[in-house]
Amino acid sequence: MEKFTLVKVDWLKHRDRLKPIIDNIGTIANDQELYTNIDKACSNEWAFLFLGFDGFVILQPRFQRQIIYLDVTVAHCTDGNAIPKYLPFLIMLAKKGAAKFIRFYSARKGFDKVAPRHNWHKVGYHHNLAIWRYKL
Fold it and tell me: Which domains, from first to last, does the chain contain?
């Protein structure tokens, strides 16, 4: 397996370039405010951008009901295989932050086959988006 690294970078330096990709993801998810919400969160350092050579992830640490978890707000990988490629980094980062689980929402039906192979569990739906969790 190849070693893959994501690096935390300054959102303001990359947001214009990433806007069309995030807008497209928002269209698929039926969330026309996705980019606006991400821009606000990243600009205020509530969420953080991590770049790789073929994609990016936007992560938002969360604390709710005395539980720390990590939200994958957006993940994009141009050559596919984002889960096996990004997951080790996400697990390491989440554990460093004492998170109990990692969560993402998706409109993509393909995750029903792929995500469980990597120990993700579908825990419900929100506005027609599947909610996936990876327990740490």
Answer: 7-135 (3.40.630.30)
Residues 53-108 pLDDT 10s: 889 999 999 999 999 999 999 999 988 788 888 899 999 999 999 999 999 998 88
Helix intervals (H) in 46-132? 82-96, 111-114
> Which strands form 129-135's sheet, in the order they lie side by side?
7-9, 48-52, 55-64, 67-77, 101-106, 129-135, 121-126
Q: Residue 61 corresponds to which amino acid?
A: P
The per-residue pLDDT of the chain, averaged, comes to 92
Closest alpha carbon to 36 in 106, 44, 132, 86: 44
How crowded is residue 57: how many other Cβ atoms within 10 Å of its Cβ? 23
In a 3-state reduction of DSSP, which class is residue 2?
Answer: coil
